[in-house]
Known about the structure:
binds pyridoxal-5'-phosphate, 7-stranded mixed sheet, alpha/beta, 18% strand, 39% helix
Amino acid sequence: MAIPAMRSLEEIQQLEHDYSLPLYAKREIALVRGEGAYLYDSTGKSYLDAMSNYGVAVLGHADPEFTAALTDQLSMLSTCHQSFYNDQRAELLAKIATIAPEGVQRAFLSNSGAEAIEAALKFARATTGKPKIVAAMRGYHGRTMGALSATADNKYRAPFEPLPIPATHVSFNDLDALEVAVDGETAAIILEPIQGEAGIYPATPEYLKGAREIATAKGALLIADEIQSGFRTGIPFSIVDAGVIPDMIATAKAVANGFPIGLTLTTDAISSAMPGGAHGTTFGGNPLACRAAIVTLNALEQRGLYSRADALGAQIIARIEELGNPKVRQVRGRGFMIGLELKERVTPTLRGLQERGVLALTASSTSLRFLPPMIWEQEQVDELIAVLGEVLSA
Ligand SMILES: Cc1ncc(COP(=O)(O)O)c(C=O)c1O
């Protein structure tokens, strides 16, 4: 049952066009409600959510436990600056310490992915005293000026150059290139263990191990950007699967089921290089965000969602391959982070899915991206495969 939107679709569109910046390529629907794995637009049409709003709504929409916890927290305390102690913040830090790799258990709490990256880059500068970073081609780390220095794509960078942090971008999964690029001036190597925006390209375990060795040998830090890959690949942090412990992990999207939060996990040594006043944020670590993160991280464990995402994700990949559709070039990914590369531009397929009630994302111009909520069950997988099969054959 759809709750009618207060305004018509045309009115909603007009207001967004008239009073916001034209920064986003808009899809023509207005989403007004969600329930579990489904979203509803202003006309009442339902959609299978295969994107969790760019990877954030891991518990789906209007989850009763999540809603009750946030409502309770709103009635207690929603804001508390970090110059005061707070019970929910302490609880979240204790929780993070149980899921972070050994030795990378100190967290800086902020409000978005880009902010988590900004903090990591600033911490790297303070710890090493070095100015440069090395990142990967096709890597995406956010759009604020520091994070943009690490982001590779020229279409994002060029209008804002010179960017504040000197960065070299090397080809991904190429250890020789990394070895050459990292020098005595390099503060950090920053990598996505699975490149997301680029089209879901996993780093090989050898590459991640090699990056760790190169960073250590040259006195640079290794930063894992798990903002998109965090929590949805069967384990909290996918780099750990390769047997690699980075110096810092930046994560955000899924941490609090869509409530804005950023986390920069660091070592004691890095923490010691950041004295009082060296960094900060008004909203970071607020009790509402912390409570949202606690309930999300607990639910992922208690409801067995890590292993289910791993199993159902593998099934999605296998079943797309079994479709045997000639338009498909490759299916890549792990858990609920799946890229489907076509031999043609993906916009018509994305549109076809949306018309038939499935919301997915693009990554590159030829790759579709599926980042489903982790509450998906067999029924949603079957629905996705059925609709995708129809759309690809149309
Ligand atoms: C890997 C990665 N890093 C950083 C970011 C930036 O996060 P935010 O959009 O929250 O600033 C993103 C966002 O898509 C991302 O996928």
